[in-house]
Amino acid sequence: MQIQLLAHRGGMGRAPENTLASFKQALADGADGYEFDVCLTQDKQPVLIHVDFNRNDIRKATGCTTPLSELKWKDVQQLTAVDSDEPVAHLDDALRFTRENQMPCFIEPKSDTPELLPIIIERVRHFEVVHLTSILTFYLRKHLLVDAKRLEPQLQTSAILINPMANFRKAAAAIDADRMILGWSGINHFKLYNTFIPTVTRQLKQLRTNGVVVEAGFIQTAKDVAWAIKNGAEGLWADDVPYIRSCLQEI
After folding, report:
1. How far is the C-alpha of 76 from the C-alpha of 90, rounded, in Å?
2. pLDDT tens, 38-97?
3. Which residues contact 54 (CB under 8 A, 6 or more apart)?
4. The domain that contains 196 carries what CATH number?
5. pLDDT digits (tens, 9 = 90+) for 152-178
6. 82: domain range?
7. Strand partners, 132
8. Residue 87: beta bridge partners?
9. Contacts of 195 (CB under 8 A, 6+ apart)
10. Helix or strand or coil: residue 21?
11. Which whole number is the average pLDDT over 4-26?
């Protein structure tokens, strides 16, 4: 089975996150796809900045103390990713990169404001990359995935699941998700839960049987890689794609 390697925020361990530089690095690293975050400026321009969901504080991402909701695109164009000279990218920059390189992209809307998702989909259609695009978010925000397919049925959707006690198959079917991603940061709580109540492995097999792609991340260590592959993960989400590839090659 071919394991997909997917670059989180463009591969933020290799270049400034959510920037064109990170996307180019992900391509050079041989990533099979890349993810980025989208939110709106005051004048409703979609820009690539990571913020907490439904928040406007962009200090951590850019160093700017003014909330994004008070900035217009012309103001954001003056900002760079923190600790770098890389400018904040517009959604069009990423979609143009996707089209030119035919590289799959995963878009995470960082707000459930009603304007954002239609704007994203309109731009995806404009660049004719619907077939290369997946809308991604946490299962807790599943309404965004349902709305995405309602607005554009050809779009793929990817749900990040963080609850090991959930019914994975039922959750995926409820929103017609194309991908289910087991999400963790640091300690792999899916592995711990499966040690005591061995249902995770069985549920992942059920997902694959039902045609749902199973992925895992964020993958940071060789142990993460080994566990994910043992349990049938078809894709690995990582900040450092070359390192995770080297771990994969050792298995």
Report:
1. 9
2. 999 999 999 999 999 999 999 999 999 999 999 999 999 999 999 999 999 999 999 999
3. 110, 111, 112, 113
4. 3.20.20.190
5. 999 999 999 999 999 999 999 999 999
6. 4-250
7. none
8. 80
9. none
10. helix
11. 97
The mean per-residue pLDDT over the stretch 194-212 comes to 96
Structure tokens at 2: 């071919």
CA 90 – CA 75 distance, rounded (Å): 12
User: pLDDT value at position 251?
Assistant: 86
Q: Read out DSSP for 94-154?
A: HHHHHHHHT--EEEEES---TTHHHHHHHHHHHTT-GGGEEEEEEGGGHHHHHHHHHH-TT
Q: In this predicted structure, what is the pLDDT of residue 107?
A: 98
DSSP 126-139: HTT-GGGEEEEEEG
pTM as predicted: 0.97
Cβ pair 47, 59 in contact under 8 A: no
Tokens linked to 46 = 């979609």
- The number of domains in the chain is 1
Encoded amino acid at 167, one letter = N
CB atoms within 10 A of CB 120: 25
Q: How far apart are CA 79 and CA 87, in angstroms?
A: 6
Alpha-helical segments (H) within the chain = 20-28, 59-62, 73-76, 91-101, 116-126, 142-151, 168-175, 189-196, 200-209, 222-230, 241-250
Are 34 and 40 in contact by the 8 Å Cβ rule? The answer is no
Say how far apart CA 162 and CA 45 lie, in whole Å. 31
Residues for the chain: how many in total?
251
Among 165, 160, 167, CA closest to 237: 160
Average pLDDT, the chain: 97
Nearest alpha-carbon partner for 19 in 77, 88, 76: 88
Question: Is residue 186 pLDDT above 90, yes or no?
Answer: no
